[in-house]
Amino acid sequence: MSLTIDEILKLAPVVPVIVIEDLEDAVPLAQALYDGGLKVLEITLRTPVALDAIKAMVKALPEDAVIGSGTVVTPEDLQASIDAGCKFMVSPGTTPALIEAAKKSPIPLLPGIASPSEAMNLYTQGFKHLKFFPAEAAGGVPMVKSIGGPLPQITFCPTGGINLEKAPTYLALPNVACVGGTWTTPKNLITEKKWDDIEALAREAASLER
Q: Which of 25, 44, 113, 193 has the fewest CB atoms found within 10 Å of its own CB?
């Protein structure tokens, strides 16, 4: 059964944004995050092994794990994500071609925006849930709060420059469903395969209140 983007964003307060360099790390990393309480995982399509990593995670993790792709830039990325078994997709921004492909997709896209005009454009095309990116660089909490004034019908997942300390201020906003971030998957812990430490970071993030 496919989930809506609204249902997905409500599953956890934090969506880990994951970069997989070594395919062998994919499953133990995903399992550590899942065991820590983060069931929605975004694997960025930034490395040659990303799609294979997604396929491995989908196969290995429990059915209630929600594996998605990030850095979806083209319609080809979108189709590759669907073929890999993703349950959702995330883009840093949008193009007309990507949005048209997303409208026909069997799984939802969370499109990225950084301004009210972009948000309005996507809202008129049926997208009520958006990624606010790059969150800190684009104005942070004050910007998201300000957009919520005239556009309260849009819900955001801010991503970019957010950490454990900053996340609660975003999550306190009524128009924020969750936040995205890389702080639960530090590169050094992945390289050293310290899965218990990553699980602890995930548990800490999963306990954040919304």
A: 193
SS3 152: coil
pTM of the model: 0.97
What domains lie within the chain, and their CATH numbers? 5-115+178-206 (3.20.20.70)
Res. 1: pLDDT tops 70: no
Contact 161, 183 (CB under 8 A): no
Q: Which residue among the candidates 39, 87, 131, 166 is catalytic per the annotation?
A: 131
Q: Is 42 a catalytic residue?
A: yes
Q: How far apart are CA 134 and CA 149, in angstroms?
A: 20
42, 87, 166, 199: the catalytic one is 42
Cβ-contact 78, 97 below 8 angstroms: no
Distances (CA, A) of 69 to 9, 13, 107, 109, 138: 14, 18, 11, 9, 23
CA distance 45 to 148: 30
* CA distance from start to end of the chain: 26
Per the CB < 8 A criterion, the answer to whether 201 and 9 are in contact is: no
Q: What is the pLDDT of residue 181?
A: 97
What is the model's pLDDT at position 196? Answer: 98
Specify the DSSP element, H or E, that contains 60. Answer: helix 50-60
